[in-house]
Design goal:
About 70% of the residues lie in helices and about 0% in strands. The chain is an all-alpha fold. It has one domain (about 5-85). The longest helix has 15 residues, at about 40-55.
Protein backbone atom coordinates (compact mmCIF):
# COMPACT_ATOMS: atom_id res chain seq x y z
CA UNK A 1 0.00 0.00 0.00
CA UNK A 2 1.33 3.39 -0.96
CA UNK A 3 2.26 5.67 1.92
CA UNK A 4 0.88 8.63 -0.03
CA UNK A 5 -2.64 7.27 0.45
CA UNK A 6 -4.91 9.46 2.53
CA UNK A 7 -5.26 8.52 6.19
CA UNK A 8 -9.03 8.09 6.02
CA UNK A 9 -8.69 5.61 3.15
CA UNK A 10 -6.03 3.69 5.06
CA UNK A 11 -8.28 3.45 8.11
CA UNK A 12 -11.13 2.25 5.87
CA UNK A 13 -8.82 -0.37 4.38
CA UNK A 14 -7.91 -1.61 7.86
CA UNK A 15 -11.60 -1.87 8.72
CA UNK A 16 -12.34 -3.77 5.50
CA UNK A 17 -9.52 -6.20 6.28
CA UNK A 18 -11.04 -6.92 9.68
CA UNK A 19 -8.86 -4.74 11.89
CA UNK A 20 -11.45 -2.78 13.84
CA UNK A 21 -10.11 0.30 15.60
CA UNK A 22 -12.41 1.80 18.22
CA UNK A 23 -13.77 5.32 17.88
CA UNK A 24 -11.44 6.35 20.71
CA UNK A 25 -8.41 4.92 18.89
CA UNK A 26 -9.32 6.69 15.64
CA UNK A 27 -9.82 9.93 17.60
CA UNK A 28 -6.39 9.44 19.18
CA UNK A 29 -4.81 8.85 15.75
CA UNK A 30 -6.17 12.17 14.51
CA UNK A 31 -5.10 13.82 17.78
CA UNK A 32 -1.56 12.56 17.17
CA UNK A 33 -1.67 13.84 13.59
CA UNK A 34 -2.73 17.30 14.75
CA UNK A 35 -0.44 17.51 17.77
CA UNK A 36 2.64 16.63 15.73
CA UNK A 37 1.43 18.45 12.60
CA UNK A 38 2.25 15.31 10.62
CA UNK A 39 1.43 14.58 7.03
CA UNK A 40 -0.84 11.62 6.29
CA UNK A 41 2.02 9.43 5.07
CA UNK A 42 3.83 9.82 8.41
CA UNK A 43 0.69 8.96 10.36
CA UNK A 44 0.09 5.92 8.17
CA UNK A 45 3.69 4.79 8.61
CA UNK A 46 3.53 5.24 12.39
CA UNK A 47 0.21 3.39 12.55
CA UNK A 48 1.41 0.55 10.33
CA UNK A 49 4.62 0.21 12.36
CA UNK A 50 2.67 0.28 15.61
CA UNK A 51 0.29 -2.45 14.48
CA UNK A 52 3.10 -4.62 13.15
CA UNK A 53 5.35 -4.27 16.20
CA UNK A 54 2.71 -4.26 18.93
CA UNK A 55 0.08 -6.53 17.31
CA UNK A 56 -2.53 -3.98 18.47
CA UNK A 57 -2.98 -0.23 18.58
CA UNK A 58 -0.90 1.19 21.42
CA UNK A 59 -1.41 4.94 21.57
CA UNK A 60 1.79 5.80 23.40
CA UNK A 61 3.91 3.78 20.96
CA UNK A 62 2.14 5.38 17.97
CA UNK A 63 2.59 8.89 19.35
CA UNK A 64 6.26 8.29 20.16
CA UNK A 65 6.87 7.24 16.55
CA UNK A 66 5.18 10.40 15.25
CA UNK A 67 7.22 12.53 17.64
CA UNK A 68 10.44 10.77 16.59
CA UNK A 69 9.72 11.51 12.92
CA UNK A 70 9.03 15.14 13.78
CA UNK A 71 12.08 15.66 16.02
CA UNK A 72 14.38 14.07 13.45
CA UNK A 73 12.99 16.32 10.72
CA UNK A 74 12.04 13.45 8.44
CA UNK A 75 10.64 14.64 5.12
CA UNK A 76 10.36 11.48 3.01
CA UNK A 77 9.24 7.88 3.37
CA UNK A 78 12.74 6.68 2.49
CA UNK A 79 14.24 8.89 5.19
CA UNK A 80 11.71 7.57 7.68
CA UNK A 81 12.53 3.97 6.78
CA UNK A 82 16.27 4.61 7.22
CA UNK A 83 15.67 6.21 10.63
CA UNK A 84 13.40 3.42 11.86
CA UNK A 85 15.92 0.81 10.72
CA UNK A 86 18.78 2.71 12.39
CA UNK A 87 16.81 2.82 15.65
CA UNK A 88 16.00 -0.91 15.38
CA UNK A 89 12.26 -0.29 15.17
CA UNK A 90 11.89 -2.08 11.84
CA UNK A 91 14.05 -4.72 10.18
Amino acid sequence: MSLSKQLAFYLDDLWAKGFKLTDEEVTFIYFGKRSTMSEDWKVILALKTTLQNQQAFVGSYFLSLLELLKVEGITSPSGAAKLLKKKGIIA
